[in-house]
């Protein structure tokens, strides 16, 4: 515990989620006074029980009712907070219209920024996405923070549009209004141990592979980042003097889905017969995407090797991602231990 931060208050949005719960754990371990926003305070008991095995400092954690879809509650939640870490997003899964995800994501980001400015918050760290920094079709092989995803590209999914537009809105807001200080963190494909059954879609993919629910693997690949390393980068972005008004990509090694499945087969030979390494034909994936909203969001990435550089975070913040396979295996072990795979 760092006693020097014992009087510093931090609000985390999305504390019930995969990244948010790890963020709460890390902040409490470092000695901060931590607040978490919840849509429904009835979730407090569940979240405290979830976090209890990871920290003995739950007495420094308080909960505040606030929804990303409404203004009410945010002024109170941010009162006397020096920092806000905004990890939450009104993400819709399955079938939805573009307006069901793009407008709410943009509105939520501006709602948080307006409240932070009214409360006099010193710095806000926004979780964006590495998908908001995609190069143009004929652009660089490895993307960095200077890139912005082209919104006119017909291959850009609604989820990527929402993240890109929301981050652009945030930068426009601080340029226009002069505060709070803004830092954006752009994570790649998040892996690593789970805290509870409320984990991200990226971990859900790992769980399906481990359970043998993916007999055919689409030709999709990802740069991976461990959730614990991602939390570490958020905390460095929150406190480092030079991080103000900067974007930071959080990404490690690139692996194809077949590489991920092979890593699981090597680590868990007793499941070798269950974990498939067979590739799905692109034509089949495109056909199935006609009936699946989630596949429609992924089909534009088939066969594309999109890599991201974290050199800026490594250089400015002395941040390092751990090996991808270490993250995969520790994530799989946590899923197995909790009976989730």
TrEMBL record:
Xref: SUPFAM superfamilies: NAD(P)-binding Rossmann-fold domains
Keyword annotations from UniProtKB, A to Z: Membrane, Oxidoreductase, Transmembrane, Transmembrane helix
Annotated NAD-dependent epimerase/dehydratase domain residues: 10-245
Entries under InterPro entries matching the protein: Epimerase_deHydtase, NAD(P)-bd_dom_sf, NAD(P)_dehydrat-like
GO molecular function terms attached to this record: oxidoreductase activity, acting on the CH-OH group of donors, NAD or NADP as acceptor
Gene3D superfamilies according to UniProt: NAD(P)-binding Rossmann-like Domain
TM stretches of this protein: 6-28
Family recorded in the similarity comment: Belongs to the NAD(P)-dependent epimerase/dehydratase family. Dihydroflavonol-4-reductase subfamily.
Listed PANTHER family: NAD DEPENDENT EPIMERASE/DEHYDRATASE, STEROL-4-ALPHA-CARBOXYLATE 3-DEHYDROGENASE, DECARBOXYLATING
Record protein name field: Nucleoside-diphosphate-sugar epimerase
Organism the protein comes from: Tahibacter aquaticus
């Amino acid at each position: 515990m760092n006693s020097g931060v014992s009087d510093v208050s931090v609000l985390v949005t999305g504390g019930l989620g995969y990244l948010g719960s790890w963020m709460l754990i890390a902040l409490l371990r470092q000695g901060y006074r931590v607040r978490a926003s919840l849509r429904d305070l009835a979730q407090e008991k569940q979240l405290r029980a979830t976090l209890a095995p990871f920290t003995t400092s739950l007495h420094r954690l308080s909960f505040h009712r606030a929804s990303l879809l409404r203004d009410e509650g945010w002024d109170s939640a941010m009162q006397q907070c020096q920092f806000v870490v905004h990890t939450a997003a009104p993400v819709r899964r399955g079938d939805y219209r573009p307006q069901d995800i793009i407008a709410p994501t943009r509105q939520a980001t501006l709602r948080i920024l307006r409240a932070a400015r009214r409360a006099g918050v010193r710095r806000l760290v926004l979780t964006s996405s590495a998908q908001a920094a995609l190069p143009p079709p004929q652009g660089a092989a490895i993307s960095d923070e200077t890139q912005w995803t082209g919104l006119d590209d017909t291959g850009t999914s609604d989820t990527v549009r929402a993240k890109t537009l929301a981050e652009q809105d945030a930068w426009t807001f601080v340029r226009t209004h002069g505060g709070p200080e803004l830092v954006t963190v752009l994570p790649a494909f998040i892996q690593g141990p789970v805290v509870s059954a409320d984990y991200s879609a990226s971990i859900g993919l790992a769980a399906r592979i481990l359970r043998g629910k993916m007999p055919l693997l689409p030709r999709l690949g990802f740069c991976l980042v461990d959730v614990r390393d991602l939390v570490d980068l958020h905390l460095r972005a929150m406190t480092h003097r030079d991080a103000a008004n900067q974007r930071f990509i959080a990404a490690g090694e690139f692996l194809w889905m077949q590489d991920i499945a092979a890593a699981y087969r090597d680590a868990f030979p007793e499941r070798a017969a269950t974990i498939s390494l067979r590739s799905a034909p692109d034509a089949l994936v495109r056909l199935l995407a006609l009936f699946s909203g989630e596949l429609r969001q992924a089909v534009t990435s088939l066969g594309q090797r999109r890599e991201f550089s974290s050199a800026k975070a490594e250089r400015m913040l002395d941040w390092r991602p751990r090996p991808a396979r270490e993250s995969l295996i520790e994530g799989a072990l946590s899923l197995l231990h909790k009976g989730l795979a």
